[in-house]
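Re: the request from the purification team.
They wanted to know what the chain is likely to look like in 3D before they choose a buffer screen. I agreed to run a prediction and write the result into the notebook, where they can find it.
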Amino acid sequence: MTNQVMTTKSYFNTPAVQNKFSEVLGERSKQFVTSILSVTSDNKLLAKANPESVMKAAMKAATLNLAIEPSLGFAYIVPYGNNAQFQLGYKGLIQLAIRSGQIKNINSGIIYASQFISYDPLFESLKVDFSQEPSEEIAGYFATIELINGFKKLIFWGYDKVYSHGKRFSKSFNNGPWKTDFDAMAQKTLLKALISVYAPLSQEMEKAVIFDAETEDMKAQPREVNGVFEATQEEIDNFDKDAYAKAKLEELSQPKADTETGEIVGAVTEQSETTATAEQGEPAW
């Protein structure tokens, strides 16, 4: 392992690599490279990873101006086989959302079985009794956003749905932040699903969504059936991940209209029926 760490250190000390990070980060490049070497030396699997793959994963974090120290939770460099991959963190997604200037409020959290009452996905009404002490069992996770134009949106996923999603899509489900910090990754998943569809995407956020999708195990376009993503073997064999990522970016950049009213999402009024309902015993979003 020591020889591989030294190889990684030598690779990141080459002028070509140093210049690449300097172009993106300026004076902060040396500190960032130091963080990369610290992260790789502290992780046995990363220490064995191809240095070039570590550089590519780290560069994605650098272009988004996100720290890669695992304890901070903004972005991660995680091992996958003999390579490394970038993974967006829960706090990093929130940071990018705030930077966009389009989001007034953003929130997510855990709802325990002892607190959960009901969730109506049709009217997006989540009933929770936070006066109850948290139980060991988790019912699920929520995420909410409020845009500066007044538009609000809430989603709730049960624990099993989040677990199935992480296991289905994440290459590093068994050795990355999904294993070490499941709750944070669960909240990131909901926030990403919410923001990528209902919030205006800044260039940084578009990059983050694509970077995160590139490191997911997209063997087939996801088809959700009762909360479980399924794909045929033919779809798995023929799926073009790069084409899917490009199509997803184009989809996210297009205006979205309500199929019944014709209103453009993100330009709704305060009377919009999509706003979350606050009831007694529930949080006021």
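For the purification team: Confidence is low (pLDDT under 50) at residues 219-238, 266-285.
Please add any questions underneath this entry.
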